[in-house]
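Dear colleagues,

As part of the handover before I leave the project, I'm documenting each prediction I ran so the next person doesn't have to rerun anything. This entry is a single chain, and its sequence is reproduced below.
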Amino acid sequence: MLSSFRFPRFRWLWFSNLAGSAGRWTLVLVLSVQLLQMTHSSFWVGLGLFLTQGPAILLAPISGALADRMDRRTLNVVSCLVSAAVTAVFALLSWAHSDLLAVWMALALVFGLSFVAQMTVRATLTPSLVPTGELLNATSLMQVSLQGAQFAGPLLATPILAAGGPAMAWTFCSLLYLASAALCVTIGEVRAGGRRQDAGFGLVVAYRYLRSRGAAWVAVWAVALHCMLTMSYLGMLPMFVAIDLHAGTSTYGALLTSIGLGAVIGSLALAQFAGTRYRPALFGYAIVFSGVALSMLGATTSASYALILGFLVGSSQAMFMSMTLAIIQSAVGDEFRGRATSFYQMITLTPMALFGWGMGGLADVTEPRPLMVTLGISFIVAMGIYALLSSWLRGLFRPVGWLPVPATAESVGL
């Protein structure tokens, strides 16, 4: 299960990612609560969360090109330090009881730029630190730290928020990002060897490269559907807890923790059963329960059942994201990995952020429950139609569909 931990540099990256991801989910918790208290509107909660990841469309092409030319370790450290600085400013604003919404939104945007850079660079670092045969295991373990931090972050931050207030919670968040930067320094220099003549921001290059690799291209669009339909609920989740579950901040924090715990267990299960023969069944589970569990979560009126269903949501979504990312990373050459990853981030994070904002706005008009139910069902239907149209996607339901495709620096599609 933990075979990738044999490599010391990967271990340092894993702990760095854990600290940074815990900071990310602490931000989601505290920012959502404060924006809802300021505005009493899910529209503004959704917009705030959109700004923390929506900048993918602006920065991902640049960060991908830089990751192919520069030291990826340094890029990750700098972006973590920016996140630490922004969350420290949030702490000062909370301490001063400042509720200037425009300032909060501007800071959310700056954080979003640093977050997108981290997502792109971390995804390119993993394949450089482990052998190809360990990539799915390593990606699954990174998913434990990435989405599994949704368990650790709120678990630690919720009592701090309840006892010490938002300023203390933001300070904790800032310290997590400082720890992430310090841990990443120990990885050492990691360069891809990208050439000067192919160092453009490269959206066209990334598109052509991914388009020429069937499995990777299918994975990009499958995860885009997944992010739009099953991961856009965060903007309406605080309102769901308040309106549909008739609960408060502690329940919201517990629900985020439950979703994160599910992500931890799901990712560990995937790391344990990373063999080719298990992948079709796990992929099927991830697709079905990503939709079914979200619909059932939206339909429940019990906070206790919501915690159980949140666990299933987290486990299935973490598995799906790990498996699709592993497909993409194993199909591309290292000198193109930054730009290919940036295209992947843009095509997934941006729709998720837009849909999350839109769902947050709709939750002000109608209660969140029917929206969450509809999103879950829509994902299953959409993936069923996609499977009928794509032989590559159907192939992933057979072990042979998971055999690695050799990655080359150049492709006929270019």
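Residues 194-201, 407-414 have pLDDT under 50 and may be disordered. DSSP finds 17 helices and no strands in the chain.

All the best with the project,
I.
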